Amino acid sequence: MNDSGFAKTPRPPYYAVIFTSLRTSRENDYGKTADRMVDLASQRPGFLGVESVRDGNGLGITVSYWASTEAISKWKAHAEHIVAQETGTRLWYEHYELRVAKVERAYAKEKT
Amino acid sequence: MNDSGFAKTPRPPYYAVIFTSLRTSRENDYGKTADRMVDLASQRPGFLGVESVRDGNGLGITVSYWASTEAISKWKAHAEHIVAQETGTRLWYEHYELRVAKVERAYAKEKT
Fold it and tell me: Under DSSP, is residue A26 helix (H, G, I), strand (E, B) or coil?
């Protein structure tokens, strides 16, 4: 059983950034940069975890979890992340939607 | 370009149900039921849209969007949905996490 895809989040409230995206066919270091962004984000204050899935058609949903909107704003303004955001808009994403949401309730179920 | 994977949501605030799950290998009408649940949910009052991705390892994220927490509670209590939830817990999902969140801000970018 592989549980690495789930974020270990604390009890609500906390924040979620829901990033839904459709990839173009351009690679241009996309995979390397995506991994680097997860590494960098993980080191930021207030980062709680991330869950990310992309299917064979290039549609992806990445949800990152944060302790506060301040933590999200600081990550958004991180210099290396800004470069990645610009490249994403220019090259990697045909379309994306980004939503910032406050998690109010959470439930989990795991087979034992 | 295929934009069918994106939900056309109104201006915030509205609500998101973030459902992250790892599938078992059991089929038992999973695909049919999943499609039926999306159809049924779409007909509920307050339903705003849904985005759903599952990768080749069985990890999936489905985010449904709703006008209010009341709309979410009513959908959760829908008789046919309750049966599906029970089968999901018993057969289809190794592990799931469900989070209810209030979307406060949203941005989008589409190539023209």
Answer: coil
